[in-house]
Write a structure and sequence with these properties.
587 residues, alpha/beta, TIM Barrel, Serine Threonine Protein Phosphatase 5, Tetratricopeptide repeat, 3 domains, six-stranded parallel β-sheet, 21 helices, 17 strands
Length: 587
């Protein structure tokens, strides 16, 4: 092949449907890094998010036929492996000469099983994929299909047996990679690769290795700035432990501030890798949420999971994070080795201490590439062939004689019900740092939290009692710090729905005075004024919004009422003149 091959990179759909899809519908950032390197080397690359195509194989077939790729790269996590296999099979039917390449943690850990079981998989990238994929594309460009000389690849040998090529050295200087934001728009970014932890349930060490590698603060913030210029103002920092190198994090935050980037972002960290200085800097630079893996309140279970943190670290991190107006999100795992009612008591006791405002509870699952999986295989004699079954994972309790489904479900119900019963108390006990610099940020934090109770996840959660009242308290507290636009709008709307129009006008007007030109505040204030009969003032607020259909509708109502009022005044004036004339004595 003398022409450069056309390459399609795909994020496949998952096996099971999900109620909450926000964590599984985003294309992994690694696919963008691969695409960027290929583009920088002159290759024609297209990228598709097919996480929503599970029930639409014909649209996949049609798009593959239209794109006509020579190479299809599929990002395999674990639970989307069957989606990848189905897409690869369709690609092979559309073009029998296509090269199907699997990459990602699923391919890295299950390459031998995939290659020995599924003919539509031609090769698997093991580990980082950028330069392995580039060399594969260059090999296809040269007209060859012998990939044995490419490091970091798994393929079939001459006898059809799966085999690995030499191991590829991990990229030492991540700054040498082209930034994907030059070519693509996305929300997930990363400063590092790797994690200092060795949790038994996590596959990160097998994917990235034990050593954490970094980008420079300038290179990372260059990416943030490029994405901001593309219209992205909220980002997910997906590092396993963003704050691993505190000096680098402080430099990143300083660089964001120096460039005046008005962005917001969420991050992931460890409770033993944050302090007051780091958290203050992160909040100033736009961080609004940090997720922490706590896993359990039982030290025995945390030790069994190799989660090397102490309860005092957890308490300190959650108190500090919340105090700077950053939402501290807690992850807990249950159904672990040694789980009992007593260890669930320990978890609830720790939750009571740290008062998290968002908690996610998960049943412990066993995945390939983890220490738990290796122990499971050694204990049971199982092989990777178990993944031929249409399952996303293996629950630990299914392999533990001391646990069963009913018991684990009871644990989960108890954790959730107790947490939601405590949540209103946690909200009312929020303690924020007493520092005028952070007052606007505190207002923003409280207003965002109020939104979750007013019209977010908690508003629709039947286990959370009195969510409208909680939202109102949060908005009022937010406004005690600063006339935040969101708090003003939502509190004003609460009064408006109660037909408390004078109070609604007071709140909305104060918010608009502090946030001039805010369209939604102007609209809401106009509606409350209309309900009080002040159509002239309402029209003055609506007039600048001449491209907003709703504003035009309200303006028309105002004109109608003002016209009727003018007509009535004219009639009254004429009648008064007639009466005045009638009362005058005849000359």
């Amino acid at each position: 092949m003398s022409e450069k091959p056309k390459i399609l990179l795909v994020y496949p759909y998952w096996l099971e449907d999900r109620t909450h899809t926000e964590d599984v519908v985003c294309v992994p950032i690694g696919l963008y890094w691969i695409a960027a390197l290929l583009k920088e080397n002159g290759f024609d690359v297209e990228l598709r998010n097919w996480s929503d195509r599970k029930d639409d194989p014909e649209s996949i077939r049609a798009e593959l036929a239209a794109i006509a790729p020579d190479i299809v790269g599929l990002s395999i996590m674990q639970a989307n492996r069957f989606g990848g296999l189905e897409i690869a099979e369709i690609a092979r039917q559309v073009n029998p000469q296509v090269v199907n390449v699997f990459g990602g943690v699923g391919a890295t850990t299950l390459w031998e099983f995939l290659l020995s079981t599924y003919a539509q998989v031609d090769c698997c990238i093991v580990g980082e994929g950028e330069y392995t994929m580039l060399e594969l594309a260059q090999t296809v460009e040269s007209g060859r299909r012998d990939f044995a000389a490419i490091a970091g690849l798994a393929l079939r040998g001459v006898d059809g047996t799966p085999t690995r090529t030499s191991e590829r050295e991990r990229i030492r200087d991540l700054n040498t990679l082209p930034i994907p934001a030059k070519h693509f728009t996305y929300q997930h970014v990363s400063l590092t690769r790797g994690c200092p932890g060795h949790c038994t349930f996590c596959g990160s060490p097998s994917m990235w290795g034990p050593k954490v590698r970094f980008r420079s603060p300038e290179h990372f913030v260059d990416e943030l700035e490029m994405l901001h210029e593309r219209g992205v103002d909220f980002l997910y920092v997906s590092d396993d432990t963003f704050t691993f190198d505190r000096t680098r994090v402080l430099a990143v935050c300083a660089e964001i501030m120096r460039r005046g980037l008005r962005i917001e972002w969420a991050a992931i960290s460890r409770v033993d890798r944050v302090d007051a200085e780091v958290l203050a800097a992160m909040r100033r630079a736009g961080c609004i949420q940090i997720s922490y893996g706590v896993e359990s309140g039982s030290q025995t279970i945390r030790d069994a999971l190799n989660k090397n943190i102490r309860a005092e670290d957890v308490r300190r991190a959650f108190a500090l994070t919340t105090s700077y107006g950053i939402l501290a999100r807690a992850y807990f795992i249950y159904g672990c080795p040694g789980e009992t009612d007593a260890t669930i008591d320990d978890t609830l006791a720790l939750i009571r201490d740290i008062r998290p405002l968002i908690v996610h509870f998960f049943i412990l699952s066993i995945f390939p590439g983890t220490a738990l999986y290796e122990r499971y295989k050694a204990r049971t004699g199982a092989t990777d062939a178990i993944w031929a079954d249409e399952i996303e994972d293996i629950k630990h309790f299914e392999t533990d004689d001391a646990l069963d489904l009913d018991t684990v479900e009871r644990f989960g119900t108890r954790l959730r019900e107790t947490y939601y019963a405590w949540l209103p108390e946690f909200v009312d006990s929020i303690e924020l740092v007493d520092d005028p610099e952070f007052a606007p940020m505190h207002a923003d934090f409280l207003a965002r939290l109020g939104m979750t109770f007013n019209h977010g996840d908690y508003a629709s959660n039947l286990s959370v009692l009195d969510s409208p009242e909680i939202a109102e308290r949060l908005y009022r507290r937010a406004l005690s710090y600063h006339p935040d636009a969101t708090a003003s709008l939502d509190l004003g709307m609460i009064h408006q729905k109660r037909r408390e129009y004078p109070e609604s006008i007071r709140v909305l007007a104060r918010g608009l005075m502090a946030n001039p030109g805010h369209e939604r505040l102007s609209m809401a204030l106009a509606v409350s004024l209309m309900n009080c009969g002040d159509f002239e003032k309402a029209l003055g607020l609506l007039a600048p919004m001449d491209d907003n259909p709703q504003a035009l509708h309200y303006a028309a109502i105002c004109h109608q009422h003002l016209g009727q009022h003018l007509e009535a005044e004219t009639k009254r004036f004429r009648l008064a003149k007639i009466m005045e004339k009638a009362e005058q004595p005849a000359s």
